[in-house]
Amino acid sequence: MEKEQEKQWAEAQNIAISVDLVEAAKKHLKFLTVVDRNRHLYESPALDWAIYRYNAFWLPLLAKHSENPFSEDPLVIPLDCEWIWHCHRLNPVRYKSDCEELFGRILGNYKVISSVQGTSTSKTEEIWKQIYPEEPYELDYNRPFLGDVLQKITQSAKFTNYDLVSAVKRQVPFSFQVSRPHMSDHLFLQEALARYKGFLHIIKTNRKNGIKSFCVPTYDIDLIWHTHQLNPVYYCKDLCALMGKVLEHDDTDSDRSKGKKLDTGFSQTTKQFEETFGLRYWKAGAMYRGTTPAPVTLIPIPFEAKKLHVQDNCDNNLIQFPETKSVEVILEFVEIKNFPEAHKRDIRVSFSKKQTDKIFNAKRTLNILSESGEKQVAYFQCEPNGEFLFEIVYRLPSNIPLPKSFKPFGSCSFSLQECLASRTRLSVDKWIPVVPLPGISSAKPILLHVSLSFTIPTPAPQVFHLVSSQPLFKGACFLPLPKIRTYKNAKNETSVTDDDGNGIFSLNMRDLSKDMTKGTDDLLKEVNYVADSSEMHTLAEFRKNAWFIKGSHGSFKLVNASGNNGEIFELVGDKMVKLFAGRRLDFEPKHCEKQRSEQDFMTAVEFSRDHPYGRSVALIDFKHRIFKVKDAWMILTGITLAYILSNMLRTECGFTSKVGHEENKVSAVTPTVETEALMEAGVQMVDEGTGNATHDVCDGGGCGSGCGSGCGHLAARCGGCGGGCGGYMSAGSGEYGGCGGCGSMAAKCGGCGGGCGGGKCGGHMAAKCGGCGGGCGGGKCRGHMAARCGGCGGGCGGGKCGGCGGGHMITSGATAEPVAA
Length: 821
Known about the structure:
single chain
């Protein structure tokens, strides 16, 4: 920071807040989690009843209590009323005016506690029953919402006419954005509070200077802001002291398209925050996650454990699966000092991990903001250890072709492990000395300004590959559990490897239906694991037309599901797991990934008391025979399950046997607002201004599904197509512009997704690349982002490189709710 920036930051940190927002935010997150387990409150009729009860019973009760407390004990608010109260308070100006109009004062939360804090409700229930003898304390959401009740709501002068239904609908996506483990970390919330104060300082400064702005928070700031508003008396007091009025919270605008109010507001907020404080605005773990996944069920599914009569479970020590953890990282190179003028031509920085990293093993390149004038940020995930290596390169004379036109200059490094171990900060802004290569001299020490933020380490999904010793066949379909006669003797083994290709163990399936040496007609098939000691362990048995799987954390019976919610199979045992066709919940495909057939996948969804609407725990990719798992208890069970289903489906209809190890991919998108790539091993390169990628980022095209921000890769040689409109060429060239469904606007790379093209390249088969239409592409590069290959988000390819872009391309989106200031 410069002196003036330090002064501004210190002034911001002196803003008085009357509430401990860090501890309050933790309670806030717990409340959102509980509400999400009661999703009937999101929809009618339960939502209508909750709004009625809030207006008719809770607010009058709260008004009496705030004026003359019923007892020394605090009131415990019913969950349904608390949810509506929560959403009402998040419009602080409207809540204040409603309270003053109806009750003559702001109704705060003094001596009121949440229903999720585990406190006894008996005293409050007693008070409620005395005042409202005909209305139960807890919501009976199964009773019909009668028309006369609705009439009471619309006609009563004692009820707010604020559209609480819409207010609730707007908060459901917010709950998804902040429902991640690192959000409740104490250090993360402390830094979020400091950034919130900086956010308020910017709004105050703009108002003081008569500047009209539309400030947009990142999600860490927005979480603290929401928490502040949930204390309405203190929020009004604090904001009136700071700005002379209550700060509005406008969350009605959700259009994240390029050039729209939310988009431009975030870009302006980013620029002002960084210029005012000298700190980066984009922060790891605080950015937009994408749209809220579609639920697998709209009704809660009750769970009861079912003990199975299986001889034994697998030994917990049979196979050791080491836990893998990951951190999210946002990296930016801000400035470089004392770089020799003789080499100062298009300077860039490549970055990689010095040590082997299971999650991130790529080498990628970014511009330096001070040299290019364009903000580029890399978002990726990696293991929480080791060092980053930063290598400075510069461009040679332009007559030398790419990529040989760049020459290394020197390097420096940064220890991520040391930074995480200190647990003092989750972001770093520092100048790092650059060591030039031998033969290169500099009069002054060369310094690189690196900005890096990261989250706390959290368990990472693990990926396993099932590599068969016999070829399979193409095709995909889901069938009921077959009768045993459909199986043949299977002597081949399937090797299970990790994502690096290291062998872990092998599985085989034995047909015992005619093997009388087992001494029973009951046992018909078994899946075995052979240990290093040559000892055989049984992982699953097929008895009486049902598979019994012995996991390290419990046993399960695999049965055909009822299919009430679209599930195909079910694991019955100590846990309830249902298997759904396609990629669901957190595994839901993003953008171009939708071009892959969803029939290639099954998602395992666990239902429990804590997750009555389900949470995804594993994904099976039958086409590539890949198993991705989140929870340790599901690893061995899930691998066995994937093996059984792969063999069963192969026998009935067939799957391809090709196993591919996905490399780290790079996606260049229009980052007019912040972007969060939910890529397991990818890197996302973005420019805040034009959205252009550097020529070094990749030669592969990307895909998008929206207008502008959803379009494909905007780098030279990189064709990409999407379902939205193409946008513009790098540096704003209109020569290759497209409209309708056009994708990449780069030289040599024409691409279309389903609309009309404009200019010289859009909408036709340009040299070497191109794809268009509405189907899946062909040619040499179909299905992945290979060198000089355009990827299509919905078009069939032509020429050498047209193809289907089912890769890791993520569109950009806005951060959180904006505030008009």
